[in-house]
Amino acid sequence: MPFFPRDSRLPLTPVASLALALSLSACGGGEEPAQASAPSEESAEDTAAEDGPADQLSQEELAGLLVEKPVPSSRPRMDESALPPEPGDSAPLPERVAWLLLAEVSRKASHAAPGSAAVCPERMEEAAGRSYTCTLTYGGLDMRFPALAEDGDGGVTFRFEYPELPTVRAVVEDTIRFDHGVEAVYCDMDDVVAVTPGEDRAPYLCYAAGGGGASAEDPAITPYEVYVLIGGTLATYPYLNEG
């Protein structure tokens, strides 16, 4: 059952607020923007694809693209240990907000992409009503996210808006395996694709052997469409609108 995750908020206690104010007032103008970087990991295994759109290939050609893996026991979920350590209360405000953005987008994508980093403006203030734009580099994509300062319990909180979110091919393929009980799957997409959540289906199709209405006698390769819901949850369905 799809669910919609909570808003991403960063509470600042009065004690932390004072420390942050002192830290910001002492900063010079020539420092680099605060960053939150993911630790180095091995790159995901690439799946070789034929030139041209997969929907123009024959069943035999598609069969050559499928990657067979066991059906996972649950939907993909991010390994929290793959994130960099969360900055402490005494860390500068831009660094704390940048880490929160990196963590929340990685959770929505169900994957901590190696080398990802978030950057927020140096001169952020904990004043309700202020808005900023933070930049996240994730899987080779640069994405911009508005960060809005609001009054919250015990201090100011930051709420992000998500005009786009990344989807990761390995995550989408394992989601199809889990949702539909199939093992051999291929998604006709780059390793990471930015998608607007809550809109029409994602700009790619996936394929699986033996899914949908296929039978043991006719294990046809079934196309699947993917939707990114508000909050980042994936919804996958057999593609029924073929021409």
UniProtKB/TrEMBL annotation:
<feature type="compositionally biased region" description="Low complexity">
    <location>
        <begin position="28"/>
        <end position="41"/>
    </location>
</feature>
<feature type="signal peptide">
    <location>
        <begin position="1"/>
        <end position="28"/>
    </location>
</feature>
<feature type="compositionally biased region" description="Acidic residues">
    <location>
        <begin position="42"/>
        <end position="53"/>
    </location>
</feature>
<protein>
    <recommendedName>
        <fullName>DUF4333 domain-containing protein</fullName>
    </recommendedName>
</protein>
<feature type="region of interest" description="Disordered">
    <location>
        <begin position="28"/>
        <end position="91"/>
    </location>
</feature>
<keyword id="KW-0732">Signal</keyword>
